[in-house]
Amino acid sequence: MDDMALRLTATSRSFGAVRAVDGLDLAVERGSVVAVLGPNGAGKTTAIAMMLGLLPPDSGTVTLFGGTPAEAVRAGRVGAMLQDGAFVPGATVRDVIELARALYPHPMDTGAILTAAGLTGLAGRRLDRLSAGEAQRARFAFALAGDPELLVLDEPAAAMDVAARQAFWTAVRSYAAHGRTVLFSTHQLHEADDHADRIVVLAAGRVVADGTSAQIRAKAGVPDGASLDAAFLALTSSSASGTGQ
Ligand SMILES: Nc1ncnc2c1ncn2[C@@H]1O[C@H](COP(=O)(O)OP(=O)(O)OP(=O)(O)O)[C@@H](O)[C@H]1O
């Protein structure tokens, strides 16, 4: 049995002439919180789509808990929050949570989902009337509903205000504290610094650095006290121009 929640081995995916993900090797231990950083076009969303079985790799393999992504999704072991996840028009927050709960074998309690996602006061609100930040929280609720072992979150806190972000990250940390695994992508480097045990920096579809924030700074050759932004720019500037064209 694979003791990793997630494993990508020599995984590649191209779109025409663009090599979005280029021989990516990444293994994520169960119980860890991993942030994936990278400039626009680095391949984060493509890698996440392959992790979830939404996009087949051209070459290489992707396994979740030692099996295929489809098996893990079918078994309710994975919850995901995607950037452009659309909602059923006219449905309420509670409707979509109940819909998600019905898809999973061991769903979380509706009240616990609403609390974790900060939506208790908005349960009866129509999804198409939510603000952008509230809609992100509803996507988080959908991802949490099945009480999955692995949460995969693509730029999850985008559009959330300061209080919503704080509540969101508290919920993520408490989720991970129960031995579950979280992988999230972000452009907010401080979120990676503050909330991830491990940071993976991608550029041009490859891993250019992987470790704690101190290890990332050391690899980039910036001092310990320097911002992660300085390390990020040092690590990604040479390869960033080679992608996203
Ligand atoms: N369906 C597609 N068709 C053509 N090109 C694509 C497609 N999806 C992604 N790409 C290209 O693959 C590369 C990687 O895109 P991807 O969305 O994975 O990057 P990203 O790191 O998530 O970027 P961002 O930070 O802007 O969200 C980009 O050059 C993008 O234009």
Automatic annotation (TrEMBL):
It is found in: Cell membrane. GO terms for cellular component: plasma membrane. GO terms for biological process: response to antibiotic. PROSITE patterns: ABC_TRANSPORTER_2 (PS50893). Residues 6-229 form the ABC transporter domain. Keywords: Antibiotic resistance, ATP-binding, Nucleotide-binding, Transport. InterPro entries: AAA+_ATPase, ABC_transporter-like_ATP-bd, ABC_transporter_ATP-binding, P-loop_NTPase. It is a peripheral membrane protein. Coiled coil: none annotated. GO terms for molecular function: ATP binding; ATP hydrolysis activity. Pfam families: ABC_tran. Its main location: membrane. PANTHER family: ABC TRANSPORTER ATP-BINDING PROTEIN (PTHR42711). This is ABC transporter ATP-binding protein.
